[in-house]
């Protein structure tokens, strides 16, 4: 049984209506623009309270830091809410950064999106004889932008560690060509991202026989 309680936005009794700050009446969250500014120009909101944004502590910290720098330090840098590395710490970890496949298609159009994927077998699974094809990796590329990687997903051991490293590369404009040119560390789970050659559209078999 997976219990996902979530969080409530406790905004209805703090006086926002007095100064005219609008909230999403369905969930109590606060809509903002790309600079965390509400409909009232001198009121800003950051963190889990934002409507349609990620409920992650590091995101709130980064958004707050960047907001302070814009307001008082002359900066113009905005928080990137798309390329956020995230992990679900289930017994088999899941990590992601960037767009999910469906959102990428919605944003760029199906004809402009290429998806590469593969199942893989971690070396440490050979001795206990675990299933060859439980772990999965996928990258989503924008064909109109030099096959830039706009989404990365991995299901396997230490997915959080893998995702954190690739997140920096994605922020730097990682492309499929750069991944192909990168020498993998054998045998690691992350190596799978340097050897992908099967597209989802091809329908080819991605099952693995060994590590």
TrEMBL record:
Signal peptide: none
GO CC term (a single one): mitochondrion
Record keywords, A-Z: Disulfide bond, FAD, Flavoprotein, NADP, Oxidoreductase, Redox-active center
CC cofactor: FAD
Nucleus recorded as keyword: no
Highest taxon, organism lineage: Eukaryota
Domain Pyridine nucleotide-disulphide oxidoreductase dimerisation span(s) in chain numbering: 84-196
GO terms for MF: flavin adenine dinucleotide binding; glutathione-disulfide reductase (NADPH) activity
Keyword Disulfide bond: yes
GO biological process annotation, one example: cell redox homeostasis
Domain FAD/NAD(P)-binding as annotated: residue spans: 1-64
Pfam families: Pyr_redox_2 (PF07992), Pyr_redox_dim (PF02852)
UniProt similarity note: Belongs to the class-I pyridine nucleotide-disulfide oxidoreductase family.
Protein name stated in the entry: TRXR1 reductase
Classification of source organism: Eukaryota, Metazoa, Chordata, Craniata, Vertebrata
Gene label: Txnrd1_1
